[in-house]
């Protein structure tokens, strides 16, 4: 007959993790990491959080004058600065979460080698940090859109939230995948820089989707629409820009269907990223 003390002495495999389930099971630790990184970002800064609002406002002025006025995009695309700023805001969220997630394990090598905690914590926290940094930019876009006559609706709010969800899932999955690879092969970080550079042009941020539809065959345009970034950017445009421009602004046909596909693709990438991460996790302490 086993006693209570003997049951307490049962040994468990050290370092055993349930992956992302353990990360969200340790929400307090996750919040501490996010809070620390956000505070470090503005440490020693006079303006502090105000920089998060100054940057998108300056971007708006630059876009309006340089691209909108001098290059004539204000005449081609109504409310073009809002269109452009909305697209850049959502892509910046993706690029920051993906890039920081890729570097997160290497940047926290000392902590990983000293104590055990779910290593997925670092790419996930990178996504939340990027989300916190994106909030002021999103608020600036919303305020500017309200100034120009934007009226929020249930559908527009749903589009904005779904866009953010797609980016969060996609960036986390890619952060897990490339973050794990980057521990052994530091070339992954340079490869990610190329991906983030191309992300701006792989989705309708600087241009409208009609330009792609006019220039490429139908099957290539379908592949373009299957890109989760395309769906996320167009959802953001639908939420903030389309109500301002009902005459000229047209969303990609079947936007919601392709948004669902984009979310499904992002979830598949998250599953693959988690699987590769778990496969390579045993070598992290050694390779770091």
From TrEMBL:
Statement: the UniProt record of this protein carries the keyword Membrane: yes
Keywords carried by this UniProt record: Antibiotic resistance, Cell inner membrane, Cell membrane, Membrane, Transmembrane, Transmembrane helix, Transport
Compartment list: Cell inner membrane; Cell membrane
Membrane topology qualifier: Multi-pass membrane protein
Domain ABC transmembrane type-2: 47-280
BP term (GO), one: response to antibiotic
Listed GO CC annotations: ATP-binding cassette (ABC) transporter complex
GO molecular function: ABC-type transporter activity
Similarity field: Belongs to the ABC-2 integral membrane protein family.
Protein name per its UniProtKB record: Transport permease protein
Organism: Microbacterium lemovicicum
